[in-house]
């Protein structure tokens, strides 16, 4: 029914990237939601895709777990208008520099673009750009017989095929949502905008030249910006160049493509860092590499701390929690999920429930006349006392006119909890790698 299809539309988003200037010298990228990129998306297929990709992503995350020039910035915005469940940015690659729209993913390490090299790869793609390696004077392939290929890039799915010393190092990169990309590794120059309005070039960044890719996550985009923390990720190079931190602010996931904010590598605007609502907790970058892990000790609804077994949050006992810009919804281990849903349901008594057929979102309601203030504040409690209080629209999500859903999904496998991008929206998040801290504060992101 239309209601069901419209419901899925709500959970699709993206961030489109374009370079903006600021008075400070830091790099920033515009970020937009991916849903805004598809010309005629079907809401039903979008929600199906989102849920399918999120669940596969969580499963593989769990498996995987068992100088300074001021700052740089990239625009960041919601992709609601394009039918995607990711956030997008734009990067400038090669010499001369060419612009590519990429998914911003804190859960993957490899940055790659659709690419043609020595006759391999797409000639052209509808609504997408193709990087022509031979036309870039700064493109340097990684040889398959190098230590970089055989050892350092092994975790990035480098292939052992090496018929001649001149053969480039190949990869078959697999994502947690089931998507994949195939191509060759290279070192390239990226042109980045600084927060003072100027630009700079960063040389020697690892990039994937993808001759083919498969998966719904790549619709309407030219590649991936890998922001997980590892030796060869974009993040690693950026923080070495601009300073040991990066930050982003995710606009509301239903925002249109003309609304965006930034990813900033380096210093954060002083107005944000001095916010009285700013909270800081430990960022455990060594516990679940390459993901950004945090220590949650509990969840409360109103003044009531929910009865959730401590092992759900304990990384050493198979639990733990990460922040992931590549997941839309928030995944909780069964014990946490049931406690949260039961706690919120008590405040929705009398509100008519609807079960969208065929969808994994279990708890949706007709809320046309529902007053948000009747729903108590849900809070994530971090070790050390910091408390993250998302807006109610981040956990009672608009799905269709008059219909809203609780934005939680039970993890099919016991393991890592994931705070997705809808839960993170309308907050500024600062990842300080040098200090191993995560700071956050409410923000309009405008």
Automatic annotation (TrEMBL):
A Pfam family that the UniProt record links to this protein: TAXi_N
UniProt keyword Protease, yes or no: yes
GO biological-process terms attached to the record: proteolysis
InterPro entries listed in its UniProt record: Aspartic_peptidase_A1 (IPR001461), Aspartic_peptidase_AS (IPR001969), Pepsin-like_plant (IPR034161), PEPTIDASE_A1 (IPR033121), Peptidase_aspartic_dom_sf (IPR021109), Plant_Aspart_Prot_A1 (IPR051708), TAXi_C (IPR032799), TAXi_N (IPR032861)
Signal peptide (UniProt feature, chain positions): 1-21
Positions annotated as active site in the UniProt record: 105, 324
Highest taxon listed in the record's lineage: Eukaryota
Peptidase A1 domain: residues covered: 87-441
Keywords: Aspartyl protease, Glycoprotein, Hydrolase, Protease, Signal
Molecular function as annotated in GO: aspartic-type endopeptidase activity
PROSITE patterns found in the cross-reference section: ASP_PROTEASE, PEPTIDASE_A1
Keyword Glycoprotein assigned: yes
Family: Belongs to the peptidase A1 family.
Name of the protein: Aspartic proteinase NANA, chloroplast-like
Originating species: Raphanus sativus (Radish)
Gene: LOC108860235
